[in-house]
Amino acid sequence: MTSVKEIVGEMTGATSEDITFVEKAYEYSKKAHEGQARYSGEPYFIHAAATAKMLAEYGMDATTIAAGLLHDAIEDARVSREEVEKEFGKELLFIVDGVTKLGTHKYRGAERHAESLRRLLVATASDIRVLIVKLADRYHNMQTLEHVPEHKRRRIALETLEIYAPIADRLGMGKMKRDLEDLAFPYVDPDAARHTAELRKLKTKETENGLAKVQRELKKELAKKGLTTFRTDIRMKGLWSLHQKLKRKRDDISLIHDIAALRIVVPSIEDCYTTLGTVHALYKPLPGEFKDYIAFPKPNGYQSLHTTVVTPEAGIVEIQIRNEEMHRRAQFGIASHMSYKQLGKNVEKLDKEIQKSRFSSLSFSWIRSLIPSLMKVSKKDGNAKSATNVPSWLSELAEAHAEVAGSEEFVEGLKEDFFSHRVFVFTPQGDVIDLPAASTPIDFAYAIHSDLGDHLQGAKVNGKLVSFETRLGNGEVVEILRKDSAHPSPKWLEIARTSLARRHIRAALGMSEAERPHQPSHGHRTRRAGRK
Ligand code: MN
Fold first, then answer.
1. Are the C-beta atoms of residues 63 and 379 closer than 8 Å to each other?
2. Which of 35, 73, 192, 428 has the smallest number of Cβ neighbours within 10 A?
3. Which DSSP category does 100 fall into?
4. Residue 279 lies in a domain
């Protein structure tokens, strides 16, 4: 069992007050869960302690770690909310409330599920730490999934793949995403998981020696350039993501070049580009495979240089180059920005980095919005309701889904808006609008303002007039032409991609939920429509 020492040991930079707070939560939770057992037969408290330890490893603050310890206390150990508030404060209660699943008497089955998820999201919109506790909770549950009754395993694993791993990805928590996916994969598709693991093992053996040689050669060359303080490691692609890629490449493993990648972590951004030059001078790059995610970060903030080169020793190899800061962020994502360990130390540095390039500053706007409030994180007087430390896309999402009626539509809408890939487009003023992939000018207009959507007359992409069906691409500049006499037409419902736009269009058309027209691509929606 994880001891309180192990948890506190991870809390570098914590005050003695912080430590006392966590110790108190540890003892309290241990007592509250006394006599309860997990499916494995082990004491229930093991789960609470493991969740808290992970939060400590992620560098979270004392309140979050204590919330990890107490996250199941109200639901499973029948401690009252009043008592938790009295002992540990409003802020901790808010986090625990957000994570708590709903009671079984009010909701059942899928509905209980959707309602719990909705509640989680709404709470997250006020305090992102709710979601981070939930992910740590889910992580430990996935690690111990084998003990859960068989009929529940697949559902839990699927939910992890479809909802929690994409959330982790969206928050830039690369390590969490990959671990959740690989823990879930064998329960969702055991045969494919075995097959993929065998393929990867084979490939690993094949390339290991070659990659070690490449590593040595690069070290020598980089030393000539004066670069000596760097480290390299070999990262194997996650099984689930390898499986997804194999499906796209018709199961032809020879077409996948990033099963094993060589990662080089250097001190500065400049060193990244120097290293890239050295790599390309040494090995021929494959054309079209180079990606500069430093100048153009991924929507979730991921930064690195990726290139694929042909090496005599190891064949075609992907090489990833980044600095320490990028490496940490690629692993821990949003949590790394909230980390106690890093507060103050790196915020200034990060801010400078963000300002360096126009594009990265735009893509990082949501992280930027975190920073001022992060400086003030405090467990005593924090106002749990303040929505300041939450990325705007997240709070908007929660808002957009807050009044959706049916639980099925809620989850489906969520999956569509949140869990599919995103595109970043620009207003003529240079503001970034973050939309799901395949969004159209209609979605763009409604994302800016419902009035703009309701009076959408035309749209220009990169200065050219386009039709409403046009799918917007990353980095495009979209201009909306507005006219008072313009109004939505029923056809727009088929074109719009986001549930936000569809809701506004329905409202403008004066339609009730039950009158929604048939949508061929969303069969389940029409099935529901007749039920009301
Ligand atoms: Mn739990």
1. yes
2. 35
3. P
4. yes
Write the pLDDT tens digit of every residue in 93-152: 989 988 876 554 455 555 566 666 666 766 776 677 888 899 999 999 999 999 999 888
- In-domain check, residue 155: no
Strand partners, 284: 310
pLDDT in tens, 422-473: 676 777 776 667 787 789 999 999 998 999 999 999 999 988 999 999 999 8
Give the distance (Å) from ligand 1 centre to CA of residue 335: 19
Beta-carbon contacts of 382 under 8 Å, excluding residues fewer than 6 positions away, are 63, 91, 376
CA of 419 from ligand 1 middle (Å) equals: 23
Q: How far is the CA of 472 from the centre of ligand 1 (A)?
A: 40
Give distance in angstroms: CA of 51 to centre of ligand 1: 8
Residue 84 token pair: 């938790």
Angstrom distances, CA of residue 406 to CA of 8, 411, 493, 528, 529: 43, 9, 19, 9, 10
- How many Cβ atoms sit within 10 Å of the Cβ of residue 368? 17
Rounded to the nearest angstrom, the distance between the alpha carbon of 39 and the centre of ligand 1 is: 12
Q: What is the spatial distance between Cα 370 and Cα 127, in angstroms, rounded to a whole number?
A: 11
Residue 71 Cα to ligand 1 middle (Å) = 6
Q: How far, in Å, CA of 532 to CA of 528, rounded?
A: 8
- In total, how many domains does the chain have? 4
Q: Tell me the CA–centroid distance for residue 25 and ligand 1, in Å.
A: 15
**276 and 405 inside one domain:** no
Annotated catalytic residues are 75-76
Go through the chain and tell me how many residues it has.
Answer: 532
Q: How far is Cα 294 from Cα 308, in angstroms, rounded to an integer?
A: 16
What predicted TM-score, i.e. pTM, was given to this entire model? 0.66
Nearest-angstrom CA–CA distance, 363 and 374: 19
Ranges in the chain, pLDDT < 50:
104-105, 340-389, 403-406, 419, 513-514, 518-532
Q: How far is CA 142 from CA 109, 121, 235, 312, in A?
A: 20, 20, 22, 41
Ligand 1 mean position, distance from CA 68 (Å):
8
Beta strand ranges found along 209-331 (DSSP E) = 231-236, 260-266, 284-285, 291-292, 305-311, 315-323
Instruction: Assess if residue 523 is contained within a domain.
Output: no
Residue 352, domain extent: 339-386
- Which pLDDT value is given to residue 258? 84
| CA dihedral angle for residue 262, residue 266, residue 271, residue 275, rounded to 10 degrees | -20
